[in-house]
Design goal:
single chain, alpha/beta, eight-stranded mixed beta sheet, two-stranded antiparallel sheet, 4 helices, 10 strands, 29% strand
Length: 181
C-alpha cells in the first residue's frame, strides 16, 4: 500500500521559506513541532536543505535528492546509515516509499527545498504548515497553492516561547478528494 506524501514547511507571510542558507527566523517552538511531526518517518529533501541542516536527524531517515553525483553525505560524519542519496526524483520517491514501509511510517515527509516542493506539491496528500507572522527577505519561496484543493483539518496558534522571534500557527491540510458519480 502506498504511504502518503506529506509536505512540512514553515512559510512567512510573504511566502519566504529560506534565505539560501537556512531559515530566516529563529523559532525553537517550530523546531520542536517539526521533530514531533517527522520523528519515525523518512525525510525527503534536496541537497541544499540537507546541507543547511548539516546532519542526519535522529529518529528519521533522510533521502537527499541531488544531481551532484559526487555528493557524499558522510563527509559530515555521524549517522551515515540514516542518509540515502538519490539522483533522480522517481528513484527518491520509490526509496522513500520503501523506507516508510520498512519503518512502519504513516507518511513520507517532504522537507524542502523550494524546487522539490514545486515538483511534488501535486503529489502530496497532506501538508503540515507553520504560518510565520513575519515577512523576511529570502531567496527561496514556497510555491503557489490552489487552496481549493486543500481542506484545513486543524489549526493551533500556540503562545510563542521566550526565544521565538515571531508568532505563528501550526496548520494541517488534507488534499480534497473529488468524486464523480
Amino acid at each position: 500500500m502506498k504511504v502518503p506524501l506529506a509536505i512540512v514547511a514553515a512559510i512567512a507571510e510573504n511566502g519566504v521559506i529560506g534565505d539560501g542558507r537556512g531559515l530566516p527566523w529563529h523559532l525553537p517552538s517550530d523546531l520542536k513541532h517539526f521533530r514531533s511531526v517527522t520523528i519515525g518517518k523518512p525525510l525527503l529533501m534536496g541537497r541544499k536543505t540537507f546541507e543547511s541542516i548539516g546532519r542526519a536527524l535522529p529518529g528519521r531517515e533522510t533521502i537527499v535528492v541531488t544531481r551532484d553525483r559526487a555528493f557524499d553525505p558522510s563527509r559530515g560524519g555521524g549517522q551515515a546509515k540514516a542518509i540515502h542519496v538519490a539522483h533522480e526524483l522517481e528513484a527518491a520517491l520509490a526509496l522513500a516509499q520503501a523506507r516508510a514501509q520498512a519503518m512502519g511510517a504513516e507518511e513520507v515527509i517532504l522537507a524542502g527545498g523550494g524546487n522539490l516542493y514545486e515538483s511534488l506539491i501535486g503529489r502530496a496528500e497532506r501538508m503540515h504548515l507553520t504560518f510565520v507572522d513575519i515577512a523576511p527577505r529570502g531567496a527561496v519561496s514556497f510555491p503557489a497553492i490552489d487552496w481549493s484543493n486543500w481542506l484545513e483539518v486543524s489549526r493551533v496558534r500556540p503562545r510563542p516561547a521566550a526565544k521565538d522571534e515571531a508568532t505563528f500557527a501550526f496548520v494541517d491540510f488534507d488534499r480534497r478528494r473529488c468524486f464523480s458519480l
